[in-house]
Amino acid sequence: MKIVLVIDQFDDSNNGTTVTARRFAGQLRRRGHEVVILAGGAPCEGKICAPVHRIPVFQKLIESQGMCFAKPDEEAYYTAFKDADIVHFYMPFRFCRRGEELARQMGIPTVAAFHVQPENITSSIFLGKNRRVNDFLYWWFYKVFYNRFDHIHCPSAFIARQLERHGYGAKLWVISNGVA
Question: Does residue 180 lie in a domain region?
Answer without folding.
Answer: no
